[in-house]
Amino acid sequence: MGRKFWAWLVLAAGLAATSALYIGTPGLVTGPESVLRLPLLSWWGNVPIIFSKDFLMFTGGHFRPLGYAVLASLRTFFPADATWFWRTLFLLVHFFNAVLAFHIFERFAHRTSAALLATFVFALHPIGSVVFGQAGNFHYLLGTTFLLGSLNLYLSGHFGKRYVLSPVLFLLSLLTCKAGGALPLFLLAYEVLYRRRPIRRSVLYALPFLGPLLVLVPFWLYYKPHPLHYQYISFAEGSGWFSFFSVVGATGLYLKGLLAGVGIPAVLHETAERIFKFYHPKFLVWMFVNLIILGAGTLAARRTWAGLGILLAYCGMVPFLSTAWNGVEEYLYWPYLYLPSLGLAMVVGGVVDLLLSKGKAWALAAGYALVVYYGIFQVRLNHISRDELSYWRRAYRLHPCETASFNLGKAHLRRGEVKQALDFLFSPQISRARYSCRVMSRYYARKGDYTASAVHLRMGSGEDNGIQFQDYEMAEAELFWRVGALDHAEDALGRVLTANPYNVDAMALLAKVWLKKGYLRAAR
User: Fold this and answer.
1) CATH numeric code, 389-523
2) What is the pLDDT at residue 160?
3) Are the CB atoms for 468 and 496 separated by under 8 Å?
């Protein structure tokens, strides 16, 4: 017990060393566009709304309310700009995930040193920084916590209260993040390959975990907000297959990030090549590579827990393989590798454990050299994520694309650097200039340059996906309010609040309009 205590202390010190210097920087945790500033997350009384279908318009149309309910409960006591608290909280959840991971590794390892090494690999991997360094990725953190808790209880035995609680934690994981869907597949592989149980018996052990899936399937399929409030992305026919081809074709990018920490935080879905044919050379090559790795993991899982790590990494990617069941624009995304990074840690720990059993003492030193390498990259990524400007500048340098250029332009504009902002908001990478025009329209309106604001507003008209009438109508309302066209401002704000009744900025501006129009005096 004393040895483990010192190990946890060293692990906590390692995470503190990689993150302590940036614990007070807002970055993407408490920045202007942080999810923590969402009005519905302001206090615990909004939890019933968070579990309603209306809240899906703030989550990309996906039912994952539990993580947001936790944030809303905490926001009751801590403001959105309490950077120290939120960064510390997210880091502690990641640390707790590492502790849960150790208890899993310890069940497989012959030597505690190998289990501790695997824990350090997971805790200090740069992918962890992507997840705990952004408030919008909190559901990946918390969902993994419930998943690891469920797996720990399952591995403790197939009888008793612990086993009964395992599906309950699995349900909580699914309520938090779609990544939890990987668990039944991994348990089946664990029982059949590692424990070498008959398939029928293995299926019976994994069967209780189908219950939570069946409970949530109706919510995933039919629990949708009204089309007036949220418009789902329209995918072309066959996009489910095309996205699968593209994900497989992007294996090289994923492997560089997972194995070497290279390429993070480039915008993956715009970096990777889109593949529309199954006989595309890149798809065929990487499909062959994936089959070899998966086959090697399947064979190795019968002898070592390193093979289980490969299977866990692949199971962790299944919920994000296709837009057919992961209908988001970011079908390639770095946080998807959070659970696979746990699989990588199992591979490293399992290989070192095997080598140590053969008297290869150098294996442990090599393993900790890898930990130092990952730790350096985590420090580097934490430094990049200290503010929005440095984060998006790095993403743009890795791969100039529309998302990185647009966000980099907005970051410059918040600093008052108009020339640099215009360079990126209207760069050659921008294919939809209307969004940039709306940003500049609101900026010029606040500066009093109403002619420039009106010109940009006119060029910013057009249909949007997602929450309707938010950008354009708010820019229109703000301009009309400032030039004194109160009736037009009221009309625009009415459309905004019809689409999104929870837009407090629109409510505040509408209150100003009504006060200026004398409605309060008339009511008296």
Assistant:
1) 1.25.40.10
2) 66
3) no
Total-model pTM = 0.93
- Rounded to 10°, the helix 210-222/161-176 angle is 20
Q: What is the 3-state secondary structure (H, E, C) of 174-230?
A: HHHCHHHHHHHHHHHHHHHHHCCCCHHHHHHHHHHHHHHHHHHHHHHHHCCCCCCCC
Q: What is the per-residue pLDDT across 33-55, written as a single tens digit (0 to 9) for each?
A: 899 999 999 899 999 999 998 89
- Domain range annotation of the chain: 2-34+80-225+236-388, 389-523
Are the C-beta atoms of residues 68 and 119 closer than 8 Å to each other?
no
Cα radius of gyration (the chain) = 25
Contact 399, 270 (CB under 8 A): yes
Q: 97: helix, coil or strand?
A: helix
Contact 224, 305 (CB under 8 A): no
Residue 323 has which token pair? 């837009």
The continuous run of DSSP H or E covering 412 comes out as helix 402-414
Beta bridge partners of 231: 466
Whether the pLDDT of residue 159 is over 70: the answer is no
Three-point CA angle 47, 48, 49, nearest 5° = 90
